[in-house]
Amino acid sequence: MTVLTRRSDFLRANRGLRVSRPGFVLLAVPNQTESVRCGITVTKRIGNAVVRNRMKRRFRALLRELLPEAGLAGHDHVLIGREGGIDRDFAALRDELRAALARAAAGKGDPPRRRGSPRR
Length: 120
Hints:
The chain is α/β, with parallel strands linked by helices. 38% of the residues lie in helices and 21% in strands. The protein has three helices and five strands. The protein has a five-stranded mixed beta sheet with strand order 1-4-5-3-2, sandwiched between helices. Helix 2 links the parallel strand 4 and strand 5.
């Protein structure tokens, strides 16, 4: 499992399949390699650095556990943290990620986001 570090990879993933869950949003997009790659994004809107780092540690543990068996081969996976993700039980996050990966494998993503006025 390779880690995404370049901004262009994250922007390309944003144009792919999107599966929303209460604790996170999963983005999946095919890559040019046959390997499974992953990335994590948690914005400042979620909380201070301590909260963001704790959420990223939880996401890394989930990805290490589930991506080898349930990840899509030849795809980039990006987890975007949501506000409810830090308070959710780890087992609930695991179940949500497993379900999100299954939906992504079936090609069933959420409808595209509406373009309109920016959220504030």
